[in-house]
Amino acid sequence: MMDKVPMTAGGFQRLQDELKQLKSVERPAIIRAIAEAREHGDLSENAEYHAARERQSFIEGRVGELEDRISRAEVIDPKTLSGTNVKFGATVTLVDEDTDEKTSYTLVGEFEADISNGLLSITSPLARALIGKTKGDSVEVVTPGGSKAYEILKVAFK
To answer: For the Transcription elongation factor GreA/GreB N-terminal domain, which residue ranges apply (predicted)?
Structure first.
């Protein structure tokens, strides 16, 4: 059995968009580039040909990776979730117990995480510490910079 990969609809759409771009734009362009490079004769010393073949290899690998993720995607709409416990799709507001700095993160699939936009991978140490907890709970997370303690101020699904 293949493991399902949880993701939001937005993350799923980004995977589909990238796959479409690779198949309809990048793949045909690289095939043309390889054909042009072949016309230039000796392939052993043709840098354009070797670069194009490398790019083609990357594209085909990425297409396979995206098709695999899309086939295993379990699209979850956080708006359909509810409850008081932290789980996939929850937007969690935390306060750093040392600095009183507040931050909010939405727990998303690992391939759509973007910490600068508040999207925290469900597989990250912080997310793993938060799972199952509720408002008022404290969590401690060991980070590369040392141990951090947070209190959960709010758990919402939007």
So the answer is: 5-75
